Structures are given as C-alpha cells and as structure tokens.
Amino acid sequence: MTNTERYHKPVLLHESIDGLAIKENGIYVDVTFGGGGHSREILNRLGKNGRLYAFDQDADAANNAIDDERFTLINQNFRYIKRFLKFYGVKKVDGVLGDFGVSSHQFDVPERGFSTRFEGVLDMRMNQSGAISAQNILNEYSENELVNIFFKYGELKNSKAIAKAIISARTEQKIVTGNQLQQILKPFLQKFKENKTLAQIYQAIRIEVNEEMQVLEEFLTQLPDIVEIGGRISLISYHSLEDRLVKRFIRDGQFEGAPEKDFYGNVSVPFRKVGGLIVPTTTEIAENSRARSAKLRIAERQ
Fold this sequence. Notes:
Family: Belongs to the methyltransferase superfamily. RsmH family.
Keywords: Cytoplasm, Methyltransferase, rRNA processing, S-adenosyl-L-methionine, Transferase
Order of helices and strands: HHEHEEHEHHHHHHHEHEHE
GO molecular function, one term: rRNA (cytosine-N4-)-methyltransferase activity
Protein name: Ribosomal RNA small subunit methyltransferase H
Strand order of the largest sheet: 3-2-1-4-5-7-6
Shape: globular
EC number: 2.1.1.199
CATH architecture of the largest domain: 3-Layer(aba) Sandwich
C-alpha cells in the first residue's frame, strides 16, 4: 500500500475521473485533496498544458502534495473555491471533483477524535485551527441546540433523550474523551445496533463542528459561475444529507422550492445530470470498507 493509500484510499477512482471527461489541456479542481489519489489520476490524464488546483483545509494533507508544475495545492476550505481560484487568475474551469466526508487518515489518528474505535480527545475539526471542536459542542451547547443537531444531522428519533443525558453528565464532569461520551450513550445503544447509533451521533457532532452542510451548499451555489459550458462536476457523497443536497442541486439548481423556469415555462437549471447514480462494486467495498456508503453523481454545465 502506498503512502497515499494509507492516508486515504480513493473511492470510485476511475468512475469519478471518467465522469469528468478530461480535456488534455483543461483546468480542473479537486476540492478534497486528502491523500491525493484522485488528483494523481487527473494529472495522469492531463497534457503538459493542463492545470489542476486542489483544496484541503487539513494541514496534514500538505504532506501528500504532488511535485508537478501543473499542480497547485490550496490549504483552504472549498467553500472559498471562487475566491481562491480568482486569486490564482482562474475564472472558469473544465471540471470539479469532490469526494466529501472524512479521510481515512482523519479516522485513523486517535487524537483527531473522529473515530468511535479509538480512545482519544474529542476534537473532530477537519481544520485543526478551527474555533469549535466536539468538546465545545458537548460542553457548551444548550439542550435545544444538541437536540437539533442529533435530530437534523444524525437523524436520531431519540435526540431529546440523548441531549438530556449529555447535559446531565456534563454537570458532574466535563466531557473530554470518546470513552466518556460512549459511557454516557450506553443506555441508547441497542444490542447489535451499537456501532450504527454511535456512528450517527459522531456524524451529527462532526457535521456541526465543520459546518459541513453549510459548506456544501456554499460550494454548490458557486459552481455555475466557475464551470465552463460543457464542463463536468463529479461529486461523491457518503450520507443521505449530503447526497440529497447534491441531487437536488443538479436537478433543480437550488435546494428549496421549485426550479426556475424561462419565459416559455421550460425549467432552467445550470447543470444536467450525466448517467444515473453510481455506487461502488462489491469488489471495491471488500477492498475498502469505507466505500460502502459512497454515491457518485455526475453533471454537465449547460
């Protein structure tokens, strides 16, 4: 296994890059660089005049930077895609790839606090200089705020009871580690469903820490301005909340309400979907368990 794969084994690698229909001398953006697996494949398909810009807010990702004059790594959150491409003199691009969610590296480093498998301090910041960590949420948010997070981002029906238990526990002792949190959550972990419930609770906290849904919305709404007509977007989601946003945006060009129509009543949306939903093969899932919930959607600027 290469260092890149150790950091994060790219999911739906060939399917997602095929979806970009790469032009040899085009300009592309990988907004979730991570271990650089997708970026390397894009570079493999670009000619000498092609360009690739990659975003990653996690400082650890810089260790995987690619030594290639066609490549630029931008250590920023992809919610600022338009601003930073403008800084580099780029107004339009031929394709954008996004592989959302948490990298294997972030899950596998106990002190990052993303994983339910390791004992570690509850952090969950993708950007380690971010102001709010999981500890802040668990120890400082009101009961109503916790209820909303667990219901909205974890899709947990018993979010009120979970929030109440956390509020009660933190009056006795500050919640600092994963083990502490899991002890508090024990009454809510049904036999044979422990891992699923824990994953939902951790997911809810992580989404709030990193403002993941707001970031995704801000990113998607900038795509019509930066993707050339005929350019492609190739987006991989890992949970239903993300996938719903991506699907709705491609279909309607917005997240709520009916899509815009022209004078003649025709629906006017910036992208048209290319093909159907793509999911990993059973072989890929067997080789990389983190691929199991991945969903790839491809669309073309029109």
